Amino acid sequence: MSAPVPVTTTVSAAARPRASAQTGPVSAPKWHRFALWSVLFLFALFFLTPMYVMLTTSLKDMAQIREGNLLSLPTSPNFDAWAKAWSSACTGIDCGGLRPFFMNSVLMVIPAVLVSSAIGAVNGYVLSKWRFRGSELMFALMLFGMFMPLQVVLLPMSQVLGWMGIASSIWGLVLVHILAGLPSTTLFFRNYYVGLPDELIKAAMLDGAGFWRIFWRIVVPLSTPIIVVTLIWQFTNIWNDFLFGVVFSGGASKPVTVGLNNLANTSSAVKEYNVDMAAAMIAALPTLFVYIVAGKYFVRGLTAGAVKG
Amino acid sequence: MGALSIRNVRKSFGAVDILKGIDIEVEAGEFLILVGPSGCGKSTLLSMIAGLDTPTTGSIHIADRDVTYALPKDRDIAMVFQSYALYPNMNVAQNISFGLEMRNVPRPKRDEAVTRVAKMLQIEHLLDRKPGQLSGGQRQRVAMGRALARNPVLFLFDEPLSNLDAKLRVEMRAEIKLLHLRTKTTTVYVTHDQVEAMTLGDRIAVMRDGVVQQLGTPDDIYSRPATRFVAEFIGSPAMNMVGSQRAAARLHAAGIELATTPEQQGALQAANSSEVTYGLRPESLVFSDAGLPGTLAMIEPTGPETYALVDTPVGKLTARVPGKVVHAVGERVHLRWSPSDAHLFDAKSDLRVA
Amino acid sequence: MNSPISTAARLSQWMPRLVLAPSFILAMFFIYGLIAWNGYLSLSASRLLPNYTFVGVEQYINLWESERWWVALKNLAIFGGLFLFFGMAIGLLLAILLDQKIRAEGVLRTVYLYPMALSFIVTGTAWKWILNPGLGIERVVQGLGFPDFTFDWLINPDRAIYTIVIAGVWQSAGFVMALFLAGLRGIDDSILKAAQIDGASLPRIYWRIIIPSLRPVFFSTLMVLSHLAIKSFDLVMALTAGGPGFATDLPATFMYTMAFSRGQIGLGAASATIMLATVAAIVVPYLYSELRSKR
Known about the structure:
CATH topology of the largest domain in chain B: Rossmann fold
Largest sheet of chain B: 6 strands, mixed
CATH class of the largest domain in chain A: Mainly Alpha
Mean pLDDT of chain B: 90
Number of domains of chain B: 2
Distance between the termini of chain A: 28 Å
CATH architecture of the largest domain in chain B: 3-Layer(aba) Sandwich
CATH superfamily of the largest domain in chain A: MetI-like
Oligomer: heterotrimer
Structural class of chain B: alpha+beta
Strand order of the largest sheet of chain B: 6-7-8-3-9-10
Number of strands of chain B: 20
Low-confidence stretches of chain B: none
Number of helices of chain A: 13
CATH architecture of the largest domain in chain A: Orthogonal Bundle
Radius of gyration of chain A: 25 Å
Helix content of chain B: 25-40%
C-alpha cells in the first residue's frame, strides 16, 4: 500500500511557515494544504451528490426529468411527487402510497427499540457488575448472534412465528427485532458499565442496597449517554431493516423499506422517477433527522459496537 | 470478647493462596492497621471483613456474631473506599443518608443523622452539592460522613488517603485520628504507607504474602521488629542491614567485629545461627572520632535533619543526624552506635534473634 | 463453625443469574436452536413446505451443481474484494486527511458519515436512478461534451456487480473513516512528538508508527466490512434485484429467492448454512482472541 497523500501539517504546530533557510526537502504548507482541501472537497461532493440528486429529482416533474439532466435544478419545484409517493403511488397491487407502510414502521420500531434497549441494559449490568461463573461464556455465546448471517435463522423463524400466530402481524416483526437487537444492546451497555467504578456498587451494597435498588438508584441515573447511543443505534437499524421486513411481514404489516422497494420496482408502464425519489426521501427522513440532530451519539454507537472496547 | 475476631482465615483462588491463615482479635474501640506491600492480601482480608468476599476456610466474628457468610448490609459495618465511591448523581446529603434510606429509617431521623454528621465533619455548607463539585479533601469527609451516619459497630478504611496530595494527606490523617478519639468506634484501616500505620494505629498488623508477620503496638513494631521484613518495612530511611558471621558468641563482618551485648550473645548462642543479619536504624548511628571507618558518599538535608550515606567496609550505611552534617562529601568519617540498638536476625529464617 | 447462608444472601447470589437467564435461554434457542433446525432443513427434502424426510447431503449436492450458486459465489468474491479494498482505502485516506487539523472537520465528518444513517434500500433506490442508463450519469457526461459516452453498467450482466460496489462503498466508507479516525485519535501524542524530535518526516511517521499501531482497528474494521459484505441483501435487492437475470446474485439473495419465492426451502437452507460456515470461520477465531486478551 503506498504512502498516503503527502501533507505537511502534523500534530504539532507546523502550520507556522518556517522562516529559516531549509536544507532538506521543504514541505510548502500552502500548496499541500490546497491539495488536502481539494481532495476532501471532492469526496464531500461524492457523498453529497446522491442526496442532491434525490432531492432535486423529487421536486421535478416527469417532463423535466425526461428532457433534462440528472444534476440540473428543478425549474418549477413542487411537492406533487411527494404527495403522490405518500398517498397514491402504487406498491404492487395497492395504490395507497407509502403511508400505510410508514405507519407500520412506526408501530414496529417503538416497542422494538424500547424493549431491546431495556433488556440490554439489565443484561449489561449483570455482565459487568455481577459476574458469575460462566457469565462470560454466556455473553460470548449471545454475542455470536450479532455476527451470524441472519439468513441462517429465517426459515425456522418463520415457522416459529407461524406457530405463535403472529407470522403476518407487526408483532412478529417486533419480536424478531427485539431478539436480533439483544446482542448489540447488551454489548453496548456492558462495555459502558464496565467503565463504572466497581467501588460504587460495593459502597451501595454496604449501604444495604440490593441488586435492583442499585440498578435503579445508582446505575440507571448514570447511564444517560449510553441510553441515547443505544436508542439511536437501535432506531436506525430497525427502521432501516429490509430483510426481516420482507420475510416476516404479511400484507398489512410491511414496513416502509419494503414499501419503498415495491414502489421503486413495480413494473408499471410508466416509471415515475420523481415519485421514486420522493418515496426514498420519505423513507430516509426519520433516520436522517435523528442523525443530524444527534449525530455525535450515532458515531459513538458505531465505534462502540465495532471496536469492542 | 473482641469486637472483631478473625479466626484462621484462608483464601485461595484455584492454586494460588492469597491468605494463608490469619488470626487477629481486635478489641472494642481499637484502631487496627493492616499494612504491607501490594499483593500481601490486606485488601482481600478487608473485603472479607466487609462481606464483599468470603474466606475459603476460617471464620469472622463481629461483636460475637458469626458473620462469615452474612451479607455486607447485615454486618452493621461501614466502609470508606480508596476512591470514596460517592454516588455521582446524588448530592452530599443524599449520599450520607443513602444507607439509612436503604434500611427504611424514617425521614426525620435521617435528616437528624445528616445534620449531626455534617456538623461533626464541618461539611454543613456542602450538603446541596454533588460529589463532582467537591475537592479531594471534601470528598473524603463526605465519605467518612456516610460511614458515620450509620453509627456502625465497625469502621473499615481501604487506603482512603492514597488519592490525596502529600500535604492534604497529613491534614486528613490528623482528622481521622481525632475522629476516632471522639467516636471510639472499632476501626480496621488498610494502608501501604508505614507513616500512616505508625501514627494512626493502636495496633499494627504487618502483612506479607498472605501472612501476618507481626501484630503489635507501633512501639513493638518499631523497637522490636519480629522479622527482617518488618524491620525494613517500617521506618524511613530503612534499617541498615549488615550480613555477618557468628563465631562462638561474637559477630564478624568483613573482618570487623560487630559489638554485641551479653543478652544478645546469650540469644545468639541459643539460636545457634551461623549467619546473622545485624540491623541498625539510621538514627542509632552517630558521627564520631572513632568507630567504624568509612567515606561520606552523599548527604540529603531534609530541614530538621540530614541523611548521610557512608561507604564502609561492611557496606553502605545510612545515618540520620539531627541538624546539619559538619563533614564534607568524600571525607573520611567514623560511625559509632550503641550495641543495644542493634537488631539481630537469623540470616536464613529472617526471624529476630535479639 | 459456618453459619448457614441466609435466604436473602442466597437470593442475592441467584438474582444475577435469574436476570440473565431469559436472554440467555432465548439466545440459545433462537440462535443455536434455529441454526440447528436450519441445518436439519438443509438435510431434508423440503421444497415449498418443510418436509422432514432426511435426504443426507442431496441439497448440498444440488447447491454445488447449481450454476446460479456459483455465480453468486463469484459475485461475492468480486464484490467482497472490491468493497473491502475501496472501503478500507477510502476510509483510511479520509481519516488521515481529517486528522490533519482541518477546521471544518466536524462538518466534513457529518457529510462523510450520513450515508450510514440511510437504509440500504434508500441507497439502492437512489443509485439505481443515478446509474440509470439513458437518464442518469450517462446523460450528464454526454451533456459535458462526450456524446458517445455510455454507462449502462446497471443492465450489463458483466458490469452490474460493480454498480453494487460503488453504492456499497458510498454507504460504508464514512463508517470506516470514523473507525480509523477514532483509532488515530487514540494514539498517544507524546509518541509522535518523540518521533519528530528523533527527526522523522511526516510520511515516515505515518508509515512506521501510526499505521502499524492501527492494526487492531484494521482488523475490527475488516471484520465489520466482511460481515456487511456477506450479509448484503438489501442493497442488491434495491439496486438490481439480483439482475439482470441473476448476474448480480449474491449468496444472501440466492438464499432468499430459493427459500421464499422458488419453493426450494431445502436448497435455501443449505445455502444459508454455507454462509454461516464462512462467517464463523472468520469471526469465531477473531472473537476468541478478542475475549481472551480482554481478561
